[in-house]
Amino acid sequence: MEAIGFEVLKALGRFFMHPLTYVFIITIFWFGLMRVKRERKDFHTRVEDVIQQLTSPLPAALITAVCISGAVLLLGLEMPVGMLVLWSLFWLILLPFRNARWLSMTAAGSLALLIAPFLPSGGTDFAFLNQWLGDVEQMNLLNAAWLLAILFLAETLLVLGDGWKQTSPAIVKSKRGKLVGEHIAQRLWFLPLFLIFPAGEISGGGWWPVVELTGGQTFGLVLFPFILGFQARIYGEYARDGVKRIGKHYLLLNLAVLACAAAAYYYPLFIFAVPAAVLIGKEVINYLYKSADQRRISMFTRREKGLKILGILPHSTAAKMELLVGEIIVKTNGREVNSQRDFYDALQQNPAYCKLEVKNLQGELRFTQSSVFEKDHYQIGCLFVPDDEYGNLSSRALRSSVVINQDRAELGESEERGSSSRAQEADFYEDSETETNSVREDEDTVSHEDEAAASVDHQNKGEEPDAGENKDKEPDPEAFYNETKRADESGESREQAPDLAAFYREFRETQKAETSMWEPESEEEETESEENKSNR
After folding, report:
1. From CA 303, how far away is CA 92, in angstroms rounded?
2. Mean pLDDT, the chain, as a whole number?
3. DSSP letters of 25-59?
4. Letter string b/e over residues 181-204, b meaning 16 or more CB atoms within 10 A of that residue's CB
């Protein structure tokens, strides 16, 4: 027991001295920073802290690490230094691709196991490198195959149980160029595993270890850092359903991998079937799922009625109200909401209190309410698909957008009222003009009827012209000139036309009558009128 305790202490020391331990931790933080940067670009806020990328999967990872360590120690799987270095080298090669699925040790281990038979046994100028190459050549590759199979089984169980948690919402463009939502499932599980190291004071005996050791009957323990990863984009269904669908396919692949590992006890060629099945099978499953998912319609698109929740900020008012991703907000504070502007404007009607009418994932309406505090998120912690093609707005921009839309609505109403009044005036003028035209048509009709009646009377009286026609007859200029010349020579006065003479006589009589009207009847009346004038 003292030897085992001493080996455990040395294993812990090797773990904290190993540089890969800190490389893994820094990598997880790096992925967290990239996630936060993308979320701030899409929603002007982060969903989870950077540290959550490490701490959130840690409980499930530690439980899994204990189980894997127990299985490895029970089977007695020995991993020399050279093989661990080869796994680490392939992991570093895959790091620049920034894909959590490729950064899983199952991918790096598969590549290492496939390339191990083709490595030289030494012959370099570096002694440590020759030592590592020798370890790889001398090790039992069945140990590495079984370790890979166990790691892939653990990865599958983690995907099913923990891979769908804390997915990150994102805004992408659909095939039609519209902004829609999706969820990115990205998890990195940090696992410190106890492995059998071919150098130490522990000795085996009897049935244990199950797999034959290559370093002799004594061995030690090493606590080596491993990392498992998963990444998938869920577009046409909810994140939990999509991740579990992939996990179930992984589980079927595990049956084939474990079968190959068991067959490798009897047929050594099956050792290489294990990494090939893990590496190729995982990529085929993810490719087929992505192809099928992209043919679906996004679960998060703009709606004509209501707002579908794309994401929920932790510890926000929405989280306290137990809102879920995928639920639809129908009314806010009694007002229907069809856009983020409507939602924000409805929240401002009662800044200290919020009551929501929500349609849950089963399509049933439910009511929820909560107090709203001063420092809460301006949309109470709900994230949505943008209202237009310009993306989501910040709190200040959304406030300005609400004011601008209200001004536009008021302006539109005033313009509508003005256009209606102008239309009424135009109708009035059109009616009056129509009425005037109808009167004119009636007058023309009456005049035409009078002319027709006069022509009928003329025809009844005969063809002889009347006196008026003789008067209207044009005089002969030459006869008028001769008569005027004769009158001048004889000194006779020229007579006026009969009608003109009669007009003059009537005019003179009228003048005399008007003059006599204003003359005083007696001297007394004249004197009286003069006195009245003086009095005035």
Report:
1. 45
2. 82
3. HHHHHHHHHHHHHHHHHHHSS-SS-TTHHHHSSHH
4. bbbbbbbbbbbbbbbbbbebeeee
Q: Which residue matches tokens 């696992």? A: 191
Task: Please work out, in degrees rounded to the nearest 5, the angle formed at the alpha carbon of residue 273 by the alpha carbons of 267 and 278.
Answer: 145
Provide DSSP, 405-422.
HHHHHHHHHHHHHHHHHH
Cα 217 to Cα 213: distance, rounded to the nearest angstrom: 7
Neighbours of 209 (CB within 10 A): 20
**Does residue 229 have a pLDDT over 90?**
yes
Model pTM score? 0.75
Q: With the C-alpha atoms ordered 313, 314, 317, 323, is the resulting torsion angle positive or negative? A: positive
Query: Residue 477: is the preceding peptide bond cis (ω within 30°)?
Result: no
Do residues 343 and 310 make contact, with C-beta atoms less than 8 angstroms apart? no
CA distance linking residue 330 with residue 316, whole number of Å:
20
Question: Residues 77, 198: contact at Cβ < 8 Å?
Answer: no
Task: Give the model's pLDDT for residue 513.
Answer: 58
More confident residue, 230 or 392: 230
Q: Which residue has the tokens 């410190």?
A: 192
Alpha-carbon distance 270 to 258, whole Å? 11
Region 307-393: CATH code:
2.30.42.10
Q: Which of 176-190, 192-206, 324-338, 387-401 has the lowest mean pLDDT?
A: 192-206
Q: Regarding beta strands 382-383 and 179-203, do their DSSP bridges make them parallel or antiparallel, or are they unpaired?
A: unpaired
Q: Which of 25, 14, 71 is nearest to 50 (CA)?
A: 25
The residue among 361, 137, 151, 402 whose CA lies nearest residue 240 is: 361
Chain centroid, CA 7 distance in Å: 56
- Buried b / exposed e over 87-116, threshold 16 CB at 10 Å, is bbebbeebeeeeebbbbbbbbbbbbbbbeb
**C-alpha–C-alpha distance, residues 366 and 368, integer Å:** 7
Helix (H, G, I), strand (E, B) or coil at 368: strand
CA contacts within 13 A on the Cβ side of 414? 6
416 vs 500, which has greater pLDDT?
A: 416
Helix/strand/coil (H, E, C) string of 196-215? EEEEEEEECECCECCCCCCC
Summarize pLDDT for 304-363 with one digit per residue, the tens.
899 999 999 999 999 999 999 999 999 999 999 999 989 999 998 888 899 999 999 999
One-character DSSP codes across 133-193? HHHHHHS-HHHHHHHHHHHHHHHHHHHHHHTTTTPEEEEEE-TTS-EEEEEEEEEEEEEEE
> Phi first, then psi: what are they for 222, rounded to 5°?
-135, 135
Range 146-165 average pLDDT:
96
Q: Specify the pLDDT at position 122.
A: 83
**Long-range pairs for 60-63: beta carbons < 8 A, 24 or more residues apart:** 60/158, 60/161, 60/162, 60/189, 61/158, 61/189, 61/190, 61/191, 61/228, 62/191
Establish how many alpha carbons lie within 13 A of residue 86's alpha carbon, considering only the half-sphere containing its beta carbon: 29
Given a cut of 50, whether residue 462 has pLDDT beyond it is no
- Domain residue ranges of the chain, discontinuous segments joined by +: 2-294, 307-393
Looking at residue 286, its pLDDT comes to 97
Q: CA separation (Å) from 502 to 4, 266, 445, 497?
A: 159, 155, 38, 9
